[in-house]
Amino acid sequence: MAFKHAAHHRFPFANFLYVFVALAATIAAPSARAQESVVQIDPAQTKIEFSLGSTLHTVHGMFAVKSGTIRLDAASGKMSGAIVVDATSGESGNSGRDSRMHREILESAKFPEIVFTPERIKGAVAAEGTSNVEVSGEFGLHGLKHEVTLPVEVVTKGQEIQLAIHYAIPYVDWGLKNPSNFLLRASSTVEIEIHAAGRMEK
Predict the structure, then answer these.
(1) Is the pLDDT of residue 40 over 80?
(2) Global pTM?
(3) pLDDT, average across residues 24-29
(4) Residue 116 zone, left/alpha/beta (φ > 0; ψ -120 to 50; rest)
(5) Among 35, 148, 149, 159, which lies 20 to 30 A Cα-Cα from 120?
(6) Which class is domain 35-201?
(7) First to last CA, the chain
(8) pLDDT at residue 110 in the model
(9) In this structure, are residues 63 and 87 in contact, taking their beta carbons and an 8 Å threshold?
(10) By C-alpha distance, which of 135, 137, 134, 139 is closest to 170?
(11) CA–CA–CA angle 155, 156, 162 (5° rounding)
(12) Strand partners, 199
């Protein structure tokens, strides 16, 4: 009889525990989701400029961005999404030079996209004003992926956000051809400047 009495009291407690855990999970779930922010990059307001030094002069040019979505979990620092650059859009103002760049170096007909995939952020982004952070991820170029860490200046104003990045890409070490010839010696790295604008959604 004592056994039945104990079982009778344990059953309601088990039910209470189950309800408590379920309720706690329900309350915590929206909080966890609220940590994620999504930044939609506006291609029309985004510029990617490059400069390549040589013994004769420095070549300047630019690429167009096709799309960009960045997701950030502020609690863990994890990131996802991608910024996709149209490799076929690259131009430097010289049709002969650009034709060679696309045909022999970028091979943009075969590799039409350059993609940066963010994976993790180091540092905090302020709700308003300027922040300096580091973003690590993969840079996909010419069919290969390379791990990089980019210094990023972030300016936030309400839901509007601007990103500024400067980085030297060791394109020769990454397997691309150096455009040097007997008259001109080109640098083995190319400097890129990214100025992106977008909107943050929470």
Answers:
(1) yes
(2) 0.79
(3) 44
(4) beta
(5) 159
(6) mainly beta
(7) 58
(8) 97
(9) yes
(10) 139
(11) 50
(12) 40, 160
Distance CA 82, CA 39 (A): 11
Tokens 């344990």 correspond to what residue?
A: 10
**Contact (Cβ atoms closer than 8 angstroms) between residue 120 and residue 136:** yes
Amino acid (one-letter) located at 199: R
Q: Which comes out higher in pLDDT, residue 30 or 186?
A: 186
Mapping DSSP onto H, E and C, the string for the chain reads CHHHHHHHHHHHHHHHHHHHHHHHHHHHHHHHHHCEEEEEECHHHCEEEEEECECCCCEEEEEEEEEEEEEEECCCCEEEEEEEEEEEEEECCCHHHHHHHHHHHCCCCCCCEEEEEEEEEECCCCCCEEEEEEEEEEEEECCEEEEEEEEEEEEEECCEEEEEEEEEECCCCCCCCCCCCCCCCECCCEEEEEEEEEEEEC
Query: Identity (one letter) of the amino acid at 164?
Result: A
